[in-house]
Specification:
globular, alpha/beta, oxidoreductase, 12 helices, Bact_Lucif_Oxidored, 9-stranded parallel sheet, about 15% strand, Luciferase-like_sf, two-stranded antiparallel sheet, oxidoreductase activity, LLM class flavin-dependent oxidoreductase, about 350 residues
Length: about 350
């Protein structure tokens, strides 16, 4: 399995001090978080993509290219690449370029995002969101696998004898995860291509995640890529830790209560009971994360959100230290126990997923 960090890059006031970081401070903090992830032995850093305040990561490949130059082992990914509002030609070019610069340490997660106004900002209609995701990815998939592409569709101008440059490193396209919280059409899309399916389950109960992952696994097998158990699955998670669970709850509560996504809603206790959010000791994080396998099966990638809601950088780096020193080593060992021999390892450039790199 791969373990890592994802960031949505929100610029949120610290509710305990009232101070709001500058955009520059937040961008630099995301870089520091990625460097710390590699330092403590995590596998992946993923950034979101947003084009509206209070978020800063509008150019993921710029950030990931800078991080690539300062790391050696870390896999660089996106937590969302907006397949609906980005031109698939530009995605093909940008991520192939990043592949070369990062010596293959690159994959990406396709998604539609959760900001409705982004569609008209980029000349699209939100009512066509699913259709845009399907058509744009069909073109992107071809651009990385065919040297010369002739193509016509509904949402962009046609291509005639077009070659995307640079070509994917070693002729191997970046591995693609299709991220969705609630859309079965996206689970089907991931299954059709034999790509990975990432269910960012941080807002949802286990029963919903189970249904989505099972649908993807069943359809993956239906499309001939392997057994359901061989499908490539990733999950999200959200943690805040202290040695003592009561200290963790007391410290995190003011951040949770005003968080830009789930603040002013359910209580911290209710949210933690109903979703994967874990606020407590490292042992509690271990136990709850291991339970993901009970409803998602053996899976390949686990990403944690640790820098949301105005938490100061010092606190976030402490969280990553605890992940690297106390949590992930145990998770690696426990997830490996009883893992069937036929379950694929997480995909990398040198060892693509069984069917994903060819689909």
């Amino acid at each position: 399995m791969q373990f890592g960090i994802f960031s949505v890059g929100d610029v949120t006031p610290d509710p305990t001090t009232g101070r709001t970081p500058t955009e520059r401070e937040r961008i630099k903090a995301m870089v520091e978080i990625a460097l710390k992830a590699e330092e403590v032995g995590l596998d992946v850093f993923a950034t979101g993509e947003h084009h509206n305040p209070p978020f800063v990561p509008s150019s993921p490949t710029t950030m990931l290219g800078w991080i690539a130059a300062r790391t050696e082992r870390l896999i660089l990914s996106t937590a969302t690449t907006l397949i609906t509002t980005n031109d698939p030609v530009k995605i093909a070019e940008d991520f192939a370029m990043l592949q070369h610069l990062a010596d293959g340490r690159v994959d990406l997660m396709m998604g539609r995002g959760n900001t409705a106004p982004v569609y008209p900002w980029f000349g699209q209609d939100i009512r066509q969101g699913i259709n845009l995701a399907i058509e744009n990815y069909a073109l992107l998939h071809r651009l990385w696998r065919e040297d010369v592409v002739n193509w016509a569709g509904k949402f962009r101008s046609p291509l005639q004898s077009f070659t995307s440059t640079p070509r994917p490193l070693d002729g191997v396209p970046p591995f693609v995860w299709h991220g969705s919280i609630r859309s079965p059409e996206i689970a089907e899309q991931a299954a059709f291509y034999g790509d990975g399916f990432f269910h960012n389950n941080i807002f949802w109960p286990a029963e919903h995640t189970q249904r989505m992952v099972e649908l993807y696994r069943e359809r993956y097998a239906h499309h001939g890529h392997g057994t359901p158990e061989q499908a490539i699955v990733g999950l999200g998670g959200h943690v805040f830790m202290r040695k003592n669970s009561q200290d963790a709850i007391r410290e995190f509560r003011p951040y949770f209560d005003v968080a830009p996504v789930y603040g002013h809603g359910p209580s911290l206790e209710d949210f933690a009971e109903q979703t994967p959010l874990t606020v407590g000791s490292p042992q509690q994080v271990i136990e709850k994360t291991l339970a993901f396998r009970e409803y998602a099966g053996d899976y390949q990638r686990q990403l944690f959100l640790v820098d949301h809601a105005g938490l100061p950088l010092k606190t976030v780096l402490e969280q990553i230290d605890m992940l690297g020193e106390e949590v992930v080593p145990v998770l690696r060992e426990e997830f490996a126990k009883g893992r069937p021999a036929g379950v694929p390892d997480a995909p990398t450039h040198k060892a693509p997923a069984t069917a994903g790199a060819e689909g």
